[in-house]
Design the sequence.
């Protein structure tokens, strides 16, 4: 099983600031089968990034993903008020298709 | 545009069996993986199982033999069965489609296991 470790657990930032979220895998994620999701209270997760760096349909370009192998990053260039949420990474390279524990981006 | 609508019982007693179904609207079951994910406050998001368009299934080993997923192509549905539930199975359960990432999600079903 691939264990995904996200850091930090909580990120306290102001609107307009840059957010950098990390996801580290216990073993290499092949074909960059790594996705990022955003979740707001009471809602299902929403796919932001797949293939480590490709934005899903309708996702603003302030969201970007990078990385390969075991180290991946989600960057939000300039935080908008609607970006304050919890973010999860997931590998879908092998089963079980594991998730990280999440990073909460909160308003400072 | 594909949409998923899920339903099932929300309150169960320990040792009972959980049944959830998910209907696919605006698309076909004939591609991709059809997945179940649950979320608990303590454990975050947990991938449970999936079934592909041929009926091939993959399950989370942590749930061992308690879980089964299946396709019902005539109704454009897929389903989840979890036997011998305990309080630890209390969670919000989601169905979702896996293509590149889980790109379409159901609305979620809150399942509570309590005597």
Sequence:
């Amino acid at each position: 099983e691939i264990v995904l470790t996200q850091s930090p657990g909580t990120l306290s930032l102001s609107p307009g600031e840059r957010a950098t979220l990390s996801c580290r895998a216990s073993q290499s994620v092949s074909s960059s089968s790594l996705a990022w999701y955003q979740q707001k209270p009471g809602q299902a997760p929403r796919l932001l990034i797949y293939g480590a760096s490709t934005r899903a349909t309708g996702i603003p370009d302030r969201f970007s993903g990078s990385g390969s192998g075991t180290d991946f990053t989600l960057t939000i260039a300039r935080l908008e008020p609607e970006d304050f949420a919890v973010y999860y990474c997931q590998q879908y390279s092998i089963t079980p298709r594991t998730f990280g524990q999440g990073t909460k981006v909160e308003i400072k | 545009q594909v949409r998923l609508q899920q339903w099932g019982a929300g309150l169960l007693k320990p040792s009972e069996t959980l049944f959830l179904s998910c209907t696919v609207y605006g698309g076909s079951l004939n591609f991709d993986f059809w997945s179940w994910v649950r979320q608990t406050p303590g454990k975050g998001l947990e991938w449970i199982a999936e079934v592909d368009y041929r009926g091939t299934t993959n399950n989370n080993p942590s749930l061992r033999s308690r879980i089964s997923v299946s396709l019902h192509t005539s109704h454009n549905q897929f389903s989840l069965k979890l036997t011998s539930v305990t309080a630890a199975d209390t969670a919000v359960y989601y169905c979702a489609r896996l293509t590149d990432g889980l790109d379409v999600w159901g609305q979620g079903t809150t399942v509570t296991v309590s005597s």
About this structure: The CA atoms of residues 33 and 52 of chain B lie 4 Å apart. Chain B touches chain A at residues 35, 44-47, 50, 58, 60-62, 94, 96, 98, 100-103, 105-108 (CB under 8 Å). Chain B has a mean pLDDT of 94. The radius of gyration of chain B is 13 Å.
